[in-house]
Amino acid sequence: MGNDIMDLGHMLQPTIMATHTFLNAPALDVLLVPGGIGNRVLADNKDTSVEDFVRLRYGQLDYLLSVCTGSMSLAKAGVLDGRRATTNKGAWAEVIPNGNNVTWVPTARWVVDGNIWTSSGVSAGMDMAYAFLSHLYGKGNEKLAKTMNGIEYAPHTDPHWDPFSVVHKVPGADKNADLSDCVKPVGY
Amino acid sequence: MGNDIMDLGHMLQPTIMATHTFLNAPALDVLLVPGGIGNRVLADNKDTSVEDFVRLRYGQLDYLLSVCTGSMSLAKAGVLDGRRATTNKGAWAEVIPNGNNVTWVPTARWVVDGNIWTSSGVSAGMDMAYAFLSHLYGKGNEKLAKTMNGIEYAPHTDPHWDPFSVVHKVPGADKNADLSDCVKPVGY
């Protein structure tokens, strides 16, 4: 970074203080594992705590979810073996070697296999979250509709809509699918 | 909350530690004021620090932006007087009395008036952010396209698309506009 004194506070902060450690985390019904740059830092430091936690806890969960490259942690934990799953399409080549017994789905906004839900990158987590909440509470659930319309988000509801698999040239991506999707408020 | 011992850690945390206070914040080029429940807590406690900061700093900014009910803070600061602006459509009735000299736009995903950009609720901030970055760096900017496709978000690019103004029954909302919008990856 050179010899200049640089204030990187705006890039590296604010800090977010976790509520628990992996060791003292309480019993969980639903575990959601995010992805992102943090995962690479852990991998660089040979820190396996995320996948260890997933492996340890999976048996007691009702549901396990991942967003983006979080599915890499799930793959490393072994819980995706024999299952279908997906990941961030820009990081496809980086993620899939971590799961040789995983059926990686190239074109998918998110994938559901049993009680494991995995989504594509970043924003795809929002659409998977809506699908997951619909699964839990019912698509017509009024509170869910109110929440979605309160955050003014018109979700993508088709798990097959995944133009980013084409944008990122994922091998096996469905190049015939429409790149565009039309969305509207929940309940309308 | 009754007599039961309740662990609300999952709802009230994790804590997010700010990098500066209003008093020692550095010079700013762009100030973005979010909205949300925190604003109401401040109002309940007659804490005017957000609008005071906006009023103090506006003259030295290149751009002032707000998301959701953040425009209420901008209105209270007086910087929206004589300008067009919008806000979260679910909180419309709560926000607009704070700016009697503001031209509140009922159907708008976001509004631009001079160097002040105000968006509708929550998710609308994402679309306004893309529009703002397009404004700064150009719509065809490669880095911007890569960023949007990296986060796998297909933005709403029409500031007039605002079905939530209809959902939330905002007076003067454009009821004839299409509630749906078709989106695709940036650059495609």
TrEMBL record, chains A, B:
InterPro entries: Class_I_gatase-like, DJ-1/PfpI, INH-QAR. The keyword Glycoprotein does not apply. Keywords: Glutamine amidotransferase. CDD domains: GATase1_PfpI_2 (cd03139). The keyword Protease does not apply. Residues 25-133 form the DJ-1/PfpI domain. It comes from the Eukaryota. This is Class I glutamine amidotransferase-like protein.
